[in-house]
Design goal:
This protein is of the alpha/beta class. It has 14 helices and twelve strands. It has two domains: 131 residues, Alpha-Beta Complex (Aspartate Aminotransferase, domain 1); 244 residues, Aspartate Aminotransferase, domain 2 (3-Layer(aba) Sandwich), CATH 3.40.640.10. The radius of gyration is 21 Å and the shape is globular. It starts with a strand and ends with a helix.
Length: 383
Amino acid sequence: MKKHIYLDYAAATPMDPVVKKATEPYWSERFHNPSAIYLSSRAVKKDLDTFRARVARLLGAKPAEIVFTSGATEANNLAISGVMSRHPKGELLVSAIEHESVLEPAKLYKNKQVPVDSNGRIILNKLSNLISDKTILVSIMMVNNELGTVQPLSEVSNLITQVREARLKSGNHLPLYLHSDGAQAGNYFDLQASRLGVDMMTVNGGKIYGPKQSGALLAKAGVDLAPLILGGGQEYGRRSGTESLALIAGFTEALEQAQSKYKQELKRTRELREFFAAELQNHLGDLTINGSIKHQSPHILSITLPGADNERLVMELDEAGIQVGVGSACSAAKGQSSHVLAAIGLSSKLARSTLRFSFGRQTTKEDLSYAVKTLVRLTAVQR
């Protein structure tokens, strides 16, 4: 029987059975539009309010600060364009390794990229030097989706607080917000916004064993957001369109599940990553592990195998029953080289020899041992 080993959890996660069950009443029984005024709709509106309150509690926010979206891409676009369209003459700073759903809307405004070091960590003094009197928004992701590198958000938040204080003293009353894309962080890290020091945060249901096309943007009170989608004024006027209670129910349940067990998952997945890295280094000596060793989410391992063709390896591993990635699934689908790997100094040749393995709740050491043996066999032929 052919093996099926999934090692691309950073791209998508399977829906948890408990999450799936939470969605079921809203597909047919409780299908009503929460904006209508009759009793069945009022009951669904009450459910919507409950889900919003549950998500707010998990993120350390007020219910009115939660905007339900169709996932991280919409949430990131709303954070960037929602703020910057209010300040068309302002400036935007984003890290050089952000997801495309941050980088692409950033191109619509005056923006600069914050460089990262060879581990993918932003260089704080470079960020400090780039902040000007016209900077309105800084967007720094929590966990990079290709390297797994964890960014120093608390230090960024402290820096922004200092800049705000200096601005007030100088009479500059322009706002300065910090947004973070937390799409890859929910299974392994605390998402309490007050502890992170962020003004806005993106959360994605499809990465935390919830439904795809579900998620939220936390936008603290005082953040003036222009809506991207106009219509009936749902989501406190920040995102029009009839809310999908099924997706929101699934997202809420998935977020609760992820945040209730993130410490256990952090420990378990770290052990898997360390085991896999050691096995790879023992059997494939000529490789480089990319990203930070110290500041690292355990569910992602990026490796470079000089001389190997990563696209060919992905297809050959797939034939052997092992599914892995070459980086961002969005970039891979368009055939683009990785801007993340370029930002940490990898040449295009080495980028084409890089694979991303990402682990999840179903991953076992047996799976990883088989993946190592298969990779050894395939690279012996290629290199």
